Amino acid sequence: MTTATQVRRRISAAVGSLVLATGLMGSASPAQALAPQTVALTGPLTTPLETAAPPLTGAIGHLYATSTWARSVLLKPTAAEECTATGCVQHFVGGDIAWSSRTGARVVVNGPVRTSWWDAGGPAGYHGYPTTDTASGLRNGGSKQLFERGAITFSPATGAQRTSGSVHLAWGRAGFEGGFLGYPVTGERTGLRDGGVYQVFERGFVVWSPASGAHPSMGAIRERWRQSGMENGEFGYPTTDETLGLRNGGSAQQYQRGTIVWSPSTGAHALTGAIRNYWTATGGQNGALGYPVSEEYRQQDFVYQLFQGGTVYWSAGTGAHSTTHGDVHNRYVSLGGAAGQLGLPLTDKLPRAGGLVQQFVNGWLVWGPETGARIVGHPTYKVWSINPGEFGWPVRDTWTDARGAHVAFQKLETIWNEATQELYSAEAVDASTVVFLGDSQLDLDSWAEQGAQAAGYPRQVVRSIGGIGYVSGSPAVGGGSATDALLLDRILLPQGNPGLVVVNLGGNDARIGATDAAILSQANRLWDELRRKYPRSTILVNGVLSRYDANHAQRRWVDGLVTREAAVRGWPRISMSGTATIAGAAGDYLDDVHLNQAGHNKVAPLYASALKYVLGR
Prior knowledge:
With 617 residues, the protein is α+β, with helices and mostly antiparallel strands. 26% of the residues lie in helices and 26% in strands. It has a 5-stranded parallel β-sheet with strand order 29-28-30-31-32, sandwiched between helices. Strands 1-2-3-4 form a 4-stranded antiparallel β-sheet, with helices on one face. The termini are far apart.
């Protein structure tokens, strides 16, 4: 240890001196080489000063000479510079000036910060040389100084504490002592899982691990993390700082295995796994769901979590989907939610035709503006969704009886038959019923309907679609032909065993010039589908009603084409070629192809006679 006598001998050998009474530096400049001798640096000297003042040279002397503040806090030097290979220190009545080539000359003022620094070995110890002067007058009477390896911060309530490395940087991101964390109240503490460390501050912690880095943990989010077991719990270490300024004053923090989210109105709640991923993908707190208002609830085979705007459900078989507040959500809850009639959601709520739909394990909820949310089975929904306008909105929930699963829509009632895997309309049919499938020739009180009535079929179900044919399509059934529409359930026929099924198509195929091959292919497909639907009913094929003039030549050709094919197949058939002329109705047309009512009335008796003959009535 350097004695006062040794110091005085060095002072005598020093080049230049400082006259303290004038406050001026000798001939040394800021770039002047520091003390040539190398000695061990020591703490403050306690030997009384003699009359001769220690010299002030080099960068230390320059700082003292040029800084009024440094002279005011340090007063007089009590010893000459003490230098090592790394730098120099000179002691004063009010503290020290420490210099190194890396940090420059810095003032260390007497007080808890300086004491802590020297207790840790001064410049040769943990902290190294100071990189700033001592800053005093901080919040609540505190002071602080930065060093090469961290900082020492003091307040009367917490004492002098060291911060360093990643923990110090994380504290800085939180605003240092002026931020939420406040002053440090302990040094770093080790021994956490996976080599982690932490440091306690007035209002929280900074936690570090090699995998996650250092992040503040504070407030309500930290309390929720603490409840889960902190780094040893389900979330692991924090991987981000707390994100502030979210909607409605909220905040969030990410962890290795989850997120904790807080808002003033909902408190702090955790999000993990698939529900967290879903919430994030749908907009987080800014989306329809808003902030979580509960933790995850775990049932036997699924989990769910409540949010401001709805509920998110997850299972291994269905994935994560939500029901958001509104009529669909309310109806689902009233039916028992995930444990009720519908089971878990398979989709989110979706817009459809001016309403809303949502799929569940055991069916759909279909909401219309005037009808509310109603249950529709999967097969019925599939057909309805293709052309909702044809059905309207469901007006009651699906129900089941011996005929199948019914749904009452605004425009018709349907029945799904599980045995046949077919969707039907719900009109009651029996042996006295005729079912017509045709084009606009069936408009008005048509010759076909009158003829069937006269032939003993008083109950009639008519499916007439303008523009449709075996090949010709119509927008009313999605642009497809009658064959396509029947196969895709875009035309629904009644369930049961009607006495007669009549096909009245081909006129529009003549109009568009469809090829013979196309007409025959599609006609056979349609006839086969009708036979599959009605295995015990008589299926009859009508030809194309026409006149004997040249304008109807193609209609007569198609008539012959389909009736000959029906004969080959063994189907009952009636040719209508030239029948309008035979019936005296050649002048009774609305246009070139559609009869007026008088024309229908003239043709009907001929058709009735032919129908009775073909059916043996």
